[in-house]
Each structure stands twice: as C-alpha cells, then as structure tokens.
Q: What sequence folds into this?
C-alpha cells in the first residue's frame, strides 16, 4: 500500500482523515457499493460521462482532466495543483469529497467505512488496467436504468421556457453550481435530468419538496428545464 | 455566464451602473424604463431578472435606502448563535455591475398620472412600469403602550439589522432566571413561523447562557404555523421553559409599558427583562402613498402581480394581498420571477409564460433540528391559489432533521445568490 505522501498540500488531509483499510478491497463487494455512485458515474464498457465523469482508467488520471467533461473549477484546480487519482487520493476523496476539493460539485456524503472505500477502489481499479478501458467488462452503471417512455425522452425542450421555469429551481439550487446542503443541478445531461424529474413526479425518489415541484411539471416543462440546465455554466 | 452578461450589458448600461444618477434615465429615451422600489427578495429579484433577461432592452432603476440589506431570514439563527450578523448582510454592488441603476434613497411619493417616483433626496424618476416591494410597516397603536419610539426598550426585530443585534444583546444581558416576553402578531404577518422559530432560538441561547430563564408568549392567534412541530421541539429540548398564552386566556388583550418594562396580559401585569413586541403589520407605507392599498395591503392580480388599482404598478412580496401564499422571502422571490416575465412581455413583447409560484419555509428548532413547510401555487382569476403542499412530521429521525437543516443552509445560499447575483 502506498503510504508515502507525494503532495505536501495534502499532508493535512491524510494525517487527519484517511484510514486505509488493511486488506486489499473486495471487487465484488465494491461493485455492490458502487451502485450508490452509479446514479452519476458510469464505469465499464461503453461508459459515458453523465452527471459525473466516466471512471474508466481513473487510476493515474490527473483530477479534473477529461477533455469532454465540464468539471467544477475546484476540481480542475485540484488537478492542476497536483492531485492524481490513486489509492490514497481516492480514499480521501471518497471518505468526504468536500474535504479534499471543497468546491467540487460531487454531492456525496462519502463512505465512512474504510473497508467500503477499499472495496469500491478495488472495483474501480479493475477498470483501470492498461489499456484503461476493458472491453469485455460488464456494463455496470445504473444511472440510466429507467422505464421512462422513449417518447418522453425524445421531447425536445424549449430552453427559453426552461429559463423561465428555472426561476423556481434557482431559489434553492444555486445557479453557479454550488452545492452546499442542496445539490447542484447545472450541466446535467438532459436525459439524466428528465429521468430524475420523472422519478420525483412518480414519487420513486423520496424528497417531498422535489416530489411537489416535479409533480406539477408537464413532460414538456421537464424537457424545457433539462434543455436549459444542461448548458448552464 | 455572469461575465458574458456583464460584458454584453457593459456599454448599454454604463450610465445605469452609477450609484448616484437617478436622473440618468428619462422615459422616452428609447428603451422602456422599469422602476423598482425596495431591494428585498421581491425588489432585488425582479430588478435582476428583468435586467438580465431583457439584455439591455429595458432600463431598470432600483430605489433602496440601505446600502447593506440584512435578511430577516436566518436572523433568528443569528439570535440563536448559529450565524454571525455579517453573514446576513448583502450589498447591491453586483446588481449595479449587472447594469441596474441602484439609487440609495427613499421613494416618498408616486405621481401616477405623470408616472414618476419622487425621492427623499429630491428629484424624481419617471417610469413606464413601477414595481413596489417595500415590505411591511407596523400598524399604529396595534399594541397598547408601544410605538416606534419604544423600539429600543422593546425591540420588534422584525426588520433585520440593528434591531436584531439589539434583541440578542438584551437576551444575553438578562439576569439569571429572568423573563423574555414576546408579543406575537395577529394574522396576516410576515413569516408565519418566524415568531416561533425565534422562540426556539431564544430558548436555545438561554438554555446555554441562562438555563433558569423563562419565556412568555402572548399570542392573539388560536394556532400558528408548524405548531405541532414547534411544540414537540419545545417539550423535548426546552422543557418547562416556555409558556404561551393564547386568546382563550387573554393573549389578545395585551398592553406594554416600555418604561416600567412590564407587559399586561388580560390585566395580569408581568415584570419582564426583555420584551419583543411584534405588532400587527401592513404594507410598506409607499404602497399606501401610491394609492394602491385597500385596508392594510395592496390587492394584486395573480397572473402577473399587477395592482388591481393601476395597470402600470405591480406589488410584490409582503406588501401584496395575493391570496394563499404566506408572506415570506421565498414567496416574494417566486412572485418576482412571474412579475419579471410579465413586465418584460408587456414592454418588449417577449413570451409570457404561465404563472407558477412556490414557497418553502424552513425553521430551526435546535442544533441540527430543522423542519419545513411548503406549497405550490397557481394563478386563478381571484387569487394565487394553493395547489399542493407538505409539512415535516413530528417524530422524524435525527438524520432527517439534520438534512432538513442543511437544506435550509443551501436554500439561503441559493436565494441570496438569486437576489443579489
Ligand atoms: C424573523 C424573521 C424570519 C424570517 N425567516 C424567513 C425564512 O426563513 N424564509 C423566508 O422565506 N422568509 C422569512 N422571513 C420573511 C421575509 O424576510 C420577508 O417575507 C421578505 O423579506 C419580504 O420581502 P419583500 O421584498 O416583500 O420586503 P423586504 O424584504 O422587507 O424588502 C423591502 C425593502 O424595501 C425598502 N423600502 C421600504 N420602503 C421604501 C421606500 N419608500 N423607498 C425605497 N425603499 C423602500 C426597505 O428598505 C427594504 O429593504 C422572515 C422574516 C422575519 C422577520
């Protein structure tokens, strides 16, 4: 296990928080734990960027460095400042994302149990061998698992109407993507946005405010919001 | 995105960004002119949304006397020691940078025929559309023995800032075992859960600093917002500390003596150490001066928040009489967006989308113990009508209460960014 410190800036975090599990992680268990991550991240064959970046080849990758993913400024800066994803940095990040990158948009409470983290990291590492993408691996992401009518997903939203409707959202969700206490909803792929809103509307997702807000939005209105938020920087 | 808007608006609004040029715009200069009175959640939001969405096609002037707006929302959390006072203050600098002509002055008169607003500092500002969001004033003589000149002895702290700081200082200066009294307001008033969140926060502070202190509430109302949740919280966290006298026991029959520091409830005189008097409320005075009030409030059309008395005047937030929405910052912000869309449509022909309103009010009962109530609303011919709603339940888990509190912190960041840029 890597225990030496490569970045002095991170020394404080490592000293204070990371308790690396002693045993190598369990990939099978890691796959199960990863389901919590899969609503935003895909990994495996054909994995694409969704709300979060795809995680194939994440080991050895500089933080915030995929060309085609709109990272938070905080994460890009972390990468430029020298964070590369490896066992240690992932362990700290997964324990509490905001402790490592305070302005990350990754709105995840973190995994408190060191063994859980080790297992997820072991699972992720199985998609990080060389070559980074392993074609024969099972597609595991659940992020787009849904039974939404394709006709609903095909609706092309009107971003101008979306901009108006978004006024209802930005009273709570910060338009600049900040995510303290309330998740960021900017720059989501439109499909993920539509799936999430319909899940609230059908009360599959549990938050009462969101069930109420989504509950009275029509399919067109949800599409309009998705069209607006996907490009909001 | 902000940068783009800023550079886009830069030239069109160079004059508009100056703080001291109320006469820089005159109606008839080509672009239509919207004047907004009051820079709270109603006024700041409507000014910002009209300016940013009209992309220079509408000139916007915001008239607001204070240079730093202190939010009433979260001012109770300051009382309880969960925020510092500075965290409640917001400047209008970003609004000026976004192209809004911010004038720090009082509007003292509205000439509806000439369509111009007179300023206390002299001069007047012409408008094509006038939006009033002046918040509340207190009804004269509402609490016998109290008037504004007594607000230092018996603070209301219902307009945030120095009043809120004074109230906290007074609570901290109470003798051990002393009494904090509150005269609660009758309906309708700004922030229905506000007085009761305040009681919770005062109790939180006193439990730490002065655990034998007592809290006495004289309340003219039978019941109040989130009552079950508050009472459950008070019993659990502040057992034996809080006594509420409702109308059945004379809670509506109250007078105070600020010199003697006494409060009389149904003839029973109590000597108290702090007395927080929250009198009955009415629309901010400028609404009445403009002649758009009926009784204490300004009636509006639900579809666009236009005054029922004058099609070129709109009234937002606490000052308006609109129907089912509570008087809250969230509501004012929500109404502002509907109004901005309608005003833009009226002045530039942009698409007017259907009115949708919503509100959620969070309250903090104790550390990490948040509750909320909220609803969605639509415009009907008569009023803003409630569609659907929810409220936290008693007996919720600690984790849920903590998440609700954290959500409120997120909301505060969201709404203040939405108002002030
Ligand atoms: C203790 C407390 C707690 C609260 N908590 C919450 C909460 O948690 N959530 C929530 O949503 N709401 C809360 N509120 C309610 C919220 O603060 C108000 O509903 C909201 O501020 C109303 O917005 P407004 O734009 O109508 O008026 P205001 O915010 O009062 O703004 C009016 C502005 O107009 C200015 N003004 C007045 N007259 C003139 C004039 N003649 N010329 C120029 N300017 C003028 C004033 O200086 C003021 O800045 C709380 C209120 C209190 C008192």
A:
């Amino acid at each position: 296990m890597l225990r030496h410190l490569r970045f002095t800036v991170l020394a404080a975090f490592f000293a204070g928080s990371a308790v690396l599990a002693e045993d190598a992680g369990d990939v099978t268990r890691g796959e199960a734990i990863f389901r919590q991550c899969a609503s935003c991240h895909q990994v495996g064959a054909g994995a694409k960027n969704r709300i979060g970046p795809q995680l194939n080849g994440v080991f050895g990758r500089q933080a915030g460095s995929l060309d085609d993913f709109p990272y938070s400024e905080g994460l890009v800066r972390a990468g430029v400042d020298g964070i590369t994803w490896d066992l240690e940095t992932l362990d700290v990040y997964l324990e509490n994302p905001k402790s490592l990158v305070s302005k990350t948009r990754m709105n995840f409470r973190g995994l408190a149990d060191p063994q859980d983290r080790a297992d997820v990291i072991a699972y992720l590492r199985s998609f990080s061998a060389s070559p980074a993408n392993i074609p024969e691996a099972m597609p595991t992401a659940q992020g787009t698992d849904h039974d939404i009518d394709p006709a609903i997903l095909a609706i092309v939203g009107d971003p101008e109407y979306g901009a108006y409707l978004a006024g209802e959202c930005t009273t709570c969700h910060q338009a600049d993507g900040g995510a303290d206490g309330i998740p960021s909803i900017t720059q989501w792929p439109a499909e993920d946005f539509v799936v999430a809103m319909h899940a609230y509307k059908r009360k599959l997702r549990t938050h009462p405010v969101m069930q109420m807000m989504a509950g009275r939005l029509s399919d067109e209105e949800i599409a309009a919001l998705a069209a607006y938020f996907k490009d909001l920087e | 995105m902000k940068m783009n808007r800023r550079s886009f608006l830069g030239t069109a609004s160079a004059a508009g960004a100056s703080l001291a040029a109320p006469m820089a715009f005159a109606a008839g200069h080509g672009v239509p002119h919207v004047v907004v009175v009051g820079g709270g959640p109603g006024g700041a939001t409507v000014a910002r949304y009209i300016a940013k969405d009209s992309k220079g096609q509408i000139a916007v002037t915001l008239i607001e006397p204070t240079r730093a707006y202190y939010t009433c929302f979260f001012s109770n959390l300051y009382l309880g020691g969960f925020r510092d006072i500075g965290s409640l203050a917001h400047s209008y600098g970003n609004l000026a940078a976004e192209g809004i002509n911010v004038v720090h002055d009082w509007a003292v008169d509205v000439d509806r025929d000439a369509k111009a607003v007179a300023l206390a500092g002299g001069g007047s500002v012409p408008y094509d559309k006038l939006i009033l969001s002046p918040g509340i004033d207190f009804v004269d003589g509402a609490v016998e023995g109290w008037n504004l000149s007594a607000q230092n002895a018996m603070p209301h702290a219902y307009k945030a800032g120095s009043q809120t700081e004074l109230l906290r200082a007074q609570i901290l200066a109470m003798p051990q075992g002393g009494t904090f009294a509150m005269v609660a307001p009758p309906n309708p008033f700004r922030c229905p859960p506000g007085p009761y969140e305040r009681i919770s926060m005062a109790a939180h502070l006193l439990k730490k600093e002065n655990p034998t202190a007592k809290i006495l509430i004289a309340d003219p109302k039978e019941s109040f917002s989130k009552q079950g949740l508050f009472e459950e919280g008070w019993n659990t966290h502040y057992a034996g500390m809080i006594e509420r006298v409702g109308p059945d026991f004379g809670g509506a029959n109250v007078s105070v003596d600020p010199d003697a520091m006494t409060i009389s409830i149904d003839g029973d005189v109590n000597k108290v150490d702090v007395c927080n008097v929250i009198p009955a409320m009415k629309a901010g005075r400028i609404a009445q001066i403009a002649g758009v009030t009926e009784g204490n409030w300004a009636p509006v059309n639900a579809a666009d928040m236009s005054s029922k008395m004058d099609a070129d005047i709109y009234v937002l937030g606490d000052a308006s009489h609109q129907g089912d929405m509570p008087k809250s910052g969230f509501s004012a912000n929500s109404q502002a967006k509907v109004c901005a869309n309608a005003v833009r449509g009226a002045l530039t022909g942009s698409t007017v989308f259907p009115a949708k309103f919503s509100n959620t009010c969070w309250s903090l009962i104790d550390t990490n113990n948040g509750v909320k109530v909220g609803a969605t609303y639509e415009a009907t011919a008569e009023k803003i009508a409630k569609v659907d709603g929810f409220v936290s339940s008693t007996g919720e888990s600690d984790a849920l209460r903590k998440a609700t509190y954290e959500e409120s912190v997120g909301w505060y960041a969201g709404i203040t960014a939405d108002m002030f840029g």
Observations:
- Chain A touches chain B at residues 160-161, 163-165, 167-168, 170-176, 178-182, 208-209, 211-213, 215-216, 232-233 (CB under 8 Å).
- The pocket of flavin-adenine dinucleotide is lined by residues B 37-43, 63-66, 69, 72-73, 75-76, 106-107, 133-135, 158, 190-191, 194, 198, 284, 286, 317-319, 327-330, 332, 361-362 (CB under 6 Å).
- The CA atoms of residues 56 and 179 of chain A lie 25 Å apart.
